[in-house]
Amino acid sequence: MDSILVTGGNELSGQIPIAGAKNACLTLMPATLLSDEPLTLTNAPRLSDIKTMTELLQSLGAEVTSLQDGKVLAMSSHNISNHTADYDIVRKMRASILVLGPMLARDGHAVVSLPGGCAIGARPVDLHLKGLEALGAELELKDGYIHAKAPGGLKGGIVNFPLVSVGATENVLMAATLAKGTTVINNAAREPEIVDLADCLRRMGAQIDGDGTSTITIQGVERLHGATHPVVTDRIELGTNMLAPAICGGEVELLGGRIDLVAAFCEKLDAAGILVEETDKGLKVARRNGRIRAVDVITEPFPGFPTDLQAQMMALLCTAEGTSVLEERIFENRFMHAPELIRMGAQIEVHGGMATVTGVDRLKGAPVMATDLRASVSLILAGLAAEGETVVSRVYHLDRGYEHVVGKLSSVGAKIERIKGQ
Ligand code: EPZ
Q: Is the domain of 238 the same as that of 371?
């Protein structure tokens, strides 16, 4: 397995281009199943998760062609010959569950493996199933698979989510576009990836209102046609790279960055003493002089502080002046980066969903281990400013969600390289 070697201490300056959003692309790709006409995505990110979703769609009979070095995905689902999403693929990537709603809406039947848990939590899919049942789906769990049927086709219905779920909102939103009648989703997720999916579905002929708010209304239509859609900028890659100059000092412009995608995150950067300004190409981030100030963080559904930036924010706060409290309210086990940061000299105490970080002057490089996608990049960020060398192992987690992270960071002056595993 490869690892990444980071030597801390360099200030950063220059520009980093931000790619299309992994979490938008992973829901846009299954949307191809809703039509037998071609759906083409531009500004797609080059990530291993995208390759996994490609593999899954191809296993169902869809054609997925990667063009322009992976930035364009030309898809066509005119011939879906298989309606079973195998455990082998689903266990590698939980977002595979997002083929369930589209397959059910398209052909009235689907068999999808239950995804199982993952490092950051149990991550059940009960809300996906309840939402589809509200549209008339008949679901049975057997041998680890969801057997779904909608013999007379899906019917519009009222979906009341007891808690906000991005994936469940996406599954129901896609299924409802072809259901007979009107669907209302209450307590819907409001993430930019939901709005991006709705934009794409509208290009395909869907009738959707209210996306981006907690109530989404969908008028079902007979069929959807093909479209071409640009994947929205990745707000998590954006926030992650904004933290690089914040931690190391210097000034970096994030090309394609948009304030509206990271507003809550920027409020915390401002409180910590980081300068963020909009430019005509994106967002410029600089560290004001003096130490970072401690800030408290609570992770919440959008538009609150994103859970996917919690680990990276903790890396910044390890060397802030004062004590910060981070409360993780979305997932039950998302502090696995804390013991690794402690190996680097951070002072962190974790009690349940709360982590208390007491700032130290500087971290010291050390061998550390990536445990999940966002934890892996928080260790790299910590290594950028730490004294000496940090070696991050198990970087396959990183490849799932960050495009060319070594190339992008070294292009702005970071001393970072990938070491091939034996
Ligand atoms: C999406 O996961 C993202 N993944 C996650 O990003 C992100 O952290 C999460 O949304 C929250 O923003 C993709 O979009 C592919 P949820 P998702 O359903 O949809 C519970 C990353 O690092 N829940 O909004 O799975 C769940 O356990 C990944 O890129 C149920 O109880 O998240 C969690 O506590 C990590 N039942 C909470 O809801 C359900 O049926 C929010 O989960 C579904 C979810």
A: yes
Residues 298 and 199 in one domain: no
| Per-residue pLDDT tens over the stretch 206-246 | 999 999 999 999 999 999 999 999 999 999 999 999 999 99
Instruction: Using the 3D structure, point to which of 230, 264, 295 is the last residue of a domain.
Output: 230
Kindly state whether residues 381 and 281 are assigned to the same domain: yes
| Rounded distance from Cα 205 to ligand 1 centre (Å) | 27
Q: Are residues 196 and 133 in the same domain?
A: yes
pTM for the whole thing? 0.97
Residue nearest to atom 44 of ligand 1 (CA): 165
The catalytic site residues sit at 118
Q: Which atom of ligand 1 is nearest to the CA of 126?
A: 40
Exposed e or buried b for every residue in 284-297, given b needs 16+ CB within 10 A? bbbbeeeebbbbeb
Nearest ligand 1 atom to alpha carbon 193: 14
Establish whether the linkage from the previous residue to 303 is cis, with ω within 30° of 0: yes
Q: Can you tell me the distance from the alpha carbon of 367 to that of 186, in angstroms, rounded to the nearest whole number? A: 46
In the predicted structure, residue 422 carries a pLDDT above the cut 70: no
Indicate the residue among 205, 230, 255 that finishes a domain: 230
In a shared domain, residues 332 and 260:
yes
Judge if 121 and 28 occupy the same domain: yes
Name the residue type at position 37: E
Domain range spanning residue 391?
3-19+233-419
Give residue ranges with CB within 6 A of ligand 1: 23, 26, 95, 121, 123-128, 163, 165-168, 307-308, 330-331, 373-374, 401
- Residue 289: which CATH number? 3.65.10.10
H helix runs in 281-404, sequence order: 310-317, 337-343, 373-385, 396-401
Judged against a pLDDT cut of 80, whether residue 56 lies above it is answered with yes
- Distance in angstroms (rounded) separating the CA atoms of residues 302 and 323: 25
Please count the CA atoms within 13 angstroms of the CA of 188 that sit on its side-chain side. 28
Tokens of 114: 């239950």
Residues 203 and 138 in one domain: yes
Q: What distances in angstroms separate CA 267 from CA 93, 167, 262, 321, one per listed residue?
A: 32, 26, 9, 18
The CA distance from 284 to 277, in Å, is 5
Pocket test for ligand 1, best of 96, 141, 165 (most atoms within 8 A of CB): 165
